[in-house]
């Protein structure tokens, strides 16, 4: 799973810096040029071609990571005085390799942040290895509610509830008698939006001009791998935070760790996975559109947050026990890009002798969910 690890040094010196200023740091005798001419981001993930995770996650994420770095460097409005470079390590989905790679990037390569890891177990140990680093993760490696999470350094590019929702789809297996209707979670994005259109065009133009067969789709109608979208937005999360620190606040993120974490927490921008913003404990604030069928077409009728969405499966599960032949169909699935909750009209099962009360009860379930 993807995570962002922001390098935090153990010093707490706060120094207000202005452009073109040179500063003698209190932790080194080296002269630091301000603003920094170059900063390095790191990438961790399985990129070994023998590892199946490389095809579905590691290689696409690395490709998107490189693409984002290139686009950030080409934007005059984002870090105009600083160039981003990158390093990457193959973890091969192995905890030991992940720990060594994290240490290497932090101590030897002096990265300002790390994008990675795909595997949640490797993520946990990378986080513990980094120890004092704020994290922005596309993973569910931390359990519990925001109020009980022990680490304020934690950030996510995808809310935990959105990742575990497919598990609730198992409930559907016991209700195969239903023939119509659905309540579904689907990745969705406006592919005509300027952000996504540019991203997709850059993705295919680079693919067509390079030797990347492991992630090259058959044609431009193929979906860009989901994990790549989050890796791409992870890079831009860093870029916007670094821009704020360097160009607007005028402070060195390497020296002002606490402020750097606070800036990261307050980053908001339009990414390819939707609006990227974070809650108090670093959870991704993901809105879900509610759509319903109107005259044969899907029409947006409302929206909800991931917090509201997380209670839906448990709420509906109670109604499953009301009657063996009177309930609604629950079907959760993912396709790609962005998040949209689709709510279909509740229809009949193959059981035809339902009472009016049972039919009305079923309709009420769908209605209540629709208006959460």
TrEMBL record:
Protein's cellular compartments: Membrane
Domain (Receptor ligand binding region): residue spans on this chain: 64-124, 174-294
GO biological process, one term: gamma-aminobutyric acid signaling pathway
Signal peptide annotation: 1-15
Transmembrane is among the record's keywords: yes
Transmembrane regions: none
GO cellular component terms listed in the entry, alphabetical order: G protein-coupled receptor heterodimeric complex
Protein name as catalogued: Receptor ligand binding region domain-containing protein
Source organism per UniProt: Didymodactylos carnosus
């Amino acid at each position: 799973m993807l995570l962002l690890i922001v390098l935090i040094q153990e010093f707490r010196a706060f120094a207000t810096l202005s452009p073109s200023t040179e500063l003698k740091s209190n932790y080194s005798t080296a002269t630091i040029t301000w603003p920094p001419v170059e900063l390095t981001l790191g990438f961790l993930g399985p990129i070994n071609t023998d590892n199946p995770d490389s095809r579905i996650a590691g290689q696409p994420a690395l490709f998107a990571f490189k693409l984002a770095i290139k686009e950030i460097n080409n934007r005059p409005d984002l870090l105009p005085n600083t160039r981003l470079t990158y390093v990457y390590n193959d973890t091969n989905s192995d905890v030991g390799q992940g720990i060594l790679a994290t240490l290497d990037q932090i101590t030897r390569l002096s990265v300002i942040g790390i994008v990675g890891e795909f595997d949640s177990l490797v993520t946990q140990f990378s986080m513990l290895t980094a120890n004092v680093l704020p994290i922005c993760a596309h993973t569910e490696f931390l359990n519990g509610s925001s109020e009980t999470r022990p680490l304020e350094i934690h950030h996510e590019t995808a809310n935990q509830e959105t990742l575990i929702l497919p598990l609730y789809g198992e409930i559907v297996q016991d209700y195969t008698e239903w023939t119509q209707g659905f309540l579904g979670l689907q990745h969705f994005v406006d592919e005509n939006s300027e952000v996504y259109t540019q991203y997709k065009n850059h993705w295919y133009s680079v693919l067509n001009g390079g030797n990347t067969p492991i992630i090259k789709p058959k044609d431009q109608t193929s979906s860009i791998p989901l994990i790549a979208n989050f890796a791409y937005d992870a890079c831009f999360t860093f870029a916007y935070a670094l821009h704020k620190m360097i160009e607007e606040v005028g402070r060195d993120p390497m020296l002002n760790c606490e402020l750097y974490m606070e800036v990261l927490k307050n980053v908001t921008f339009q990414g390819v996975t939707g609006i990227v913003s974070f809650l108090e404990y670093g959870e991704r604030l993901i809105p879900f559109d509610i759509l319903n069928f109107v005259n044969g077409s899907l029409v947006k009728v409302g929206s909800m947050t991931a917090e509201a969405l997380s209670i839906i499966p448990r709420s509906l599960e109670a109604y499953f026990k009301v009657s063996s032949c009177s309930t609604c169909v629950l079907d959760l699935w993912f396709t790609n890009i962005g998040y949209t909750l689709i709510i279909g009209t509740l229809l009949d099962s193959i059981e035809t002798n339902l009472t009016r009360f049972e039919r009305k009860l079923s309709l009420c379930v769908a209605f209540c969910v629709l208006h959460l």
